[in-house]
Write a structure and sequence with these properties.
- This protein is an all-alpha fold and 171 residues long.
- The protein is elongated, with a radius of gyration of 52 Å.
- The chain has a domain of 84 residues.
- It has 4 helices and no strands.
- Helix 3 packs across helix 4.
């Protein structure tokens, strides 16, 4: 076998390792006898075993309960409670359906009222526009010079206002 070319303190030399591993402190305590921690662990294990035994006895007692006559009475009470709950549930479903139907009817009625009012307001707006247009045409026919002068004056005032605005925005 070829010998290693490089030897370093980082590479272990297995010839210097001890033949037997060192004995730890916990193993020495175990050899002497039970430590206080082990005694406490044994006590806790005994207590846990007793608790498990009690639970098993309780389970067997509960499993034997159906043999008692009181179970029939409790069963009758639970059946009665179930029928009452089912009755209350069906009554609640019926009331909810009734309320939903009433809400749908009320919504439909309000929708019809809104449509009728919208149609009526639209008709009034058209009639008001028609009357305003007739009145404007009548005014133009009766006072053509006055209308032309008023339109010119309004145009002049709009022009002056725009000019003043543009001059103020420049600064």
């Amino acid at each position: 076998m070829a010998e290693r070319l490089h030897r370093s303190s980082d590479v272990p030399n297995f010839d210097t390792y001890p033949a037997t591993p060192p004995v730890s402190e916990s193993e020495r305590l175990l050899e002497k006898g039970k430590s206080p921690l082990e005694q406490r662990a044994a006590e806790l294990g005994t207590a846990a075993g007793k608790v498990v035994s009690i639970f098993r006895q309780a389970r067997t007692t509960v499993e034997k309960l159906p043999e008692h006559p009181i179970v029939d009475r409790i069963s009758d009470l639970t059946d009665g409670a179930r029928t009452r709950v089912e009755h209350l549930r069906s009554a609640a479903v019926e009331n909810a359906q009734h309320l939903a139907h009433a809400a749908r009817d009320k919504t439909a009625e309000l929708g019809r009222q809104v449509r009728d009012k919208t149609v009526d307001l639209g008709r009034q707006a058209k009639f008001g526009y028609y009357r305003a247009r007739l009145r404007a045409n009548q005014t133009v026919r009766e006072y053509p010079v006055h209308v032309a002068l008023t339109a010119g004056l309004i145009g002049f005032l709009i022009g002056v206002g725009l000019r003043i605005r543009r001059a103020n925005r420049a600064y």
